[in-house]
Design brief:
A four-stranded mixed sheet has the order 1-2-4-3. The chain has a two-stranded antiparallel ribbon with strand order 5-6. The chain folds into three domains: about 80 residues, 2-Layer Sandwich (Ribosomal Protein S5, domain 2); about 45 residues, no CATH class; about 140 residues, Up-down Bundle (Four Helix Bundle (Hemerythrin (Met), subunit A)). The chain is α+β, with helices and mostly antiparallel strands and about 290 residues long. It contains eight helices and six strands, in the order βββαββααβααααα. The chain is rod-shaped, with a radius of gyration of 38 Å.
C-alpha cells in the first residue's frame, strides 16, 4: 500500500527532518538517504522501518542540521605562525623586501590552524533520529490504514460475488445430470426399436454424475472464502497467506470449469476467474 509520513523536531541543538514514502511492492525493499557523517544510523533505520512496514518499497530521506552548539573547534598553532613570521622578517631584512604581512597571509600558512571535530555521541544522535522517525512512521501507517480499509471493503464485495456464484453452480450442477439422462434416453429411443434398458440409462447417468460432480470443489471454495474473510479481519501480516488462498481458490475454480457441461456454469466460471484475478491484484498491496 502507498503512504507518506513526515516529521520534524529539534533535539539537542539538531534540527531533524524525516520523510518516508512507501509504494506497492511484493516484498520489503528499503532505501535511505542520510547525511554522510551520520551514515552509521542507516542499518538501525532499516530495522525500525521494518518493524512498521512488512511489505512495500520504503524510501526514507533524513536531513540533520546543527543549529546550536559547536561541531568543530579551530585552534591556532602559535609556534608555527611565529616561525613563519620570523622567517619572513629575516627575508625582508636580508633582501630589503617591502613589509606587507597581513592577517590573510596567516591563512595560507601550512599547519597554522588545527580543526578538531567535536566528539559526537552516536547513541544520543540515533535516539533523537529514531524518535522523529517513529512519528513519521505512525503517520505513514495511518495513511496506509485508510487505503487498507478501502481495499478490504472492495475485496469483501468480491468474495460476496464468489459465494453467490458458487450457490448458483450448486443449483445448476444437479440439473445438468438430469438433462444428460433425458438426452441419453431420447437418443437411445431413436436408435433402439425395442424397449430401452432403464438400468443402463441409470448407470450411464450415474457415471456422468460422478465425472461432473463439483460438490467437493464448491465446499472447498466456500472454506477458502471463509478463511479469506478471517484473515482480512486480523491485525497480523497476512499478504503471503492471502496469496496462497487465491492460488487454492483458482485451482478449485479451474476444476469446476473442467467438469462443467452446461454453458451457464461455464459462464459463471469465467466470471469467477475474473473476480479472483481482481482480488489477486488487490492483495499485492496488503501486508
Amino acid at each position: 500500500m502507498t503512504g507518506f509520513g513526515r516529521s520534524q523536531n529539534i533535539i539537542d541543538g539538531r534540527e531533524i527532518t524525516v520523510e518516508i514514502r512507501a509504494v506497492n511492492h511484493k516484498f520489503l525493499e528499503f532505501s535511505a538517504r542520510v547525511p554522510r557523517k551520520y551514515g552509521y544510523i542507516e542499518e538501525k533505520l532499516k530495522s525500525v522501518v521494518g518493524g512498521f512496514v512488512k511489505r512495500g518499497k520504503a524510501e526514507v530521506n533524513i536531513t540533520i542540521n546543527q543549529i546550536s552548539g559547536k561541531e568543530v573547534t579551530v585552534t591556532v598553532n602559535r609556534d608555527v605562525v611565529e616561525s613563519y613570521v620570523s622567517a619572513l622578517r629575516e627575508l625582508e631584512q636580508e633582501f630589503h623586501l617591502e613589509d606587507n604581512l597581513c592577517l590573510s597571509d596567516v591563512f595560507r600558512m601550512t599547519d597554522a590552524f588545527t580543526i578538531v571535530k567535536s566528539e559526537v555521541d552516536e547513541d544520543a544522535v540515533w535516539e533523537a533520529v529514531k524518535s522523529v522517525v517513529e512519528v513519521a512512521l505512525d503517520k505513514l501507517v495511518s495513511m496506509r490504514k485508510v487505503e487498507g480499509d478501502k481495499l478490504k471493503h472492495d475485496i469483501q464485495s468480491r468474495l460476496d460475488f464468489i459465494e453467490d456464484a458458487v450457490s448458483e453452480i450448486e443449483i445448476l450442477s444437479p440439473d445438468s445430470v438430469v438433462k444428460h439422462r433425458e438426452k441419453l434416453l431420447e437418443r437411445m429411443n431413436e436408435v433402439v426399436s425395442k424397449g430401452v434398458d432403464e438400468q443402463r440409462i441409470l448407470l450411464e447417468a450415474a457415471i456422468f454424475a460422478e465425472k461432473t460432480a463439483v460438490d467437493e470443489e464448491t465446499v472447498r471454495l466456500r472454506s477458502h472464502v471463509e478463511q479469506f474473510r478471517e484473515l482480512l479481519d486480523t491485525e497480523d501480516v497476512v499478504g503471503r497467506k492471502l496469496d496462497f488462498l487465491v492460488q487454492e481458490m483458482n485451482r478449485e475454480i479451474n476444476t469446476i470449469g473442467s467438469k462443467a457441461q452446461e454453458l451457464s456454469v461455464t459462464r459463471i466460471v469465467v466470471d469467477l476467474k475474473s473476480e479472483l484475478e481482481k482480488i489477486r491484484e488487490q492483495i499485492q498491496n496488503i501486508e
